[in-house]
Amino acid sequence: MKTTRRECLRPLAGALLGAAATNALGFQPNAAMWSDAEKEKYLKSAGIVSVEEIGHGVTKPIKAKLMLAGVEHAAKIQTVDKELPDFFGADNKPVPMRDSWRYNVAAYRMDRLLGLRMGTVEVARPYKGKPAAFSWWVDDVQFEEVDRLRKEIQPPDPEVFARQREVSKVFDELIINIDRNLSNILITKSWKIALIDHSRCFVPYHSIRNTENLTRCSKGLLAAMRGLTAASITQAVGTYLTAVEVKAVLARRDRIVELFEREVKAKGEASVLFP
Fold first, then answer.
1. Which residue in 64, 69, 147, 186 is a FRET match for 226, CA 20 to 30 A apart?
2. What is the rounded CA–CA span in Å between residue 88 and residue 207?
3. For the whole model, what pTM was predicted?
4. 8, 19, 62, 143 from 191: Cα distances, Å
């Protein structure tokens, strides 16, 4: 079959178009391949095309369609920032608690500081005159954890998936996530866990909220937690946590590390820690 000159030129035209888009944006047009820095740049700079109610979540977040240099992607926007009733821990003493968009940004940065890469990219950006968190809309989601359990769907590699869940539980205790539920644990088609919605975290409580969640931990996460300092956390989270909140993170870290060290002594490393 004879090939026309126009057909021969199509691949070249496509390549040139891709190069032009890359130059215009500063990164390639396939958003799935973007780095965290590129996603942050997009979330901060993209225009808002449309918004819609998500329809679930107590903080009433909205979904926004964004556009930048011809590349479309979605984001979740949260503007919530209010006091909540005091938190009461095991000592029954009241601890002030907030529901705030800024904790989404802080949780993302803590996630990356610890090397987990389970949280979504988050940036601070005003929305309708209010400070807000813009969250990268998770691509390739097949279902929420609540749906997986309800439908009794088993992961292809149960141990790999279980390890992700164990790590996510340790992270939630470190940042004291008051509002973790099975609807804000997303499962992608490649069976990676994505953690969303962190506006109710970082209560300045110095103890572990749920010790029953701390059954196993990765060696990498344990080492990363041991290496945390007030300076390293502050450098990572910037102004999105107060000094009091940073101090509480370190206090919880100390107790979490101590718990796992005791468990290793009692049960053996292989029963508690995994690669």
1. 186
2. 11
3. 0.89
4. 40, 32, 25, 10
Is pLDDT of 246 > 70? yes
Tokens for 128? 């309708």
CA distance 103 to 203: 10
Residue 81 class from Cβ within 10 Å (0-12 exposed, 13-18 middle, 19+ buried)? Answer: middle
The mean per-residue pLDDT over the stretch 254-263 comes to 98
Buried b (16+ CB within 10 A) or exposed e, 190-217: eebbbbbbbbbbbbbbbebbeeeebebb
The answer to whether 51 and 64 are in contact (CB under 8 A) is yes
Q: How confident is the model at residue 26 (pLDDT cuts 50, 70, 90)?
A: low
Domain range annotation of the chain? 32-274
Type of residue found at 260? F
CA 229 to chain centre: 21
Write phi, then psi, for 99 (nearest 5 degrees). -115, 110
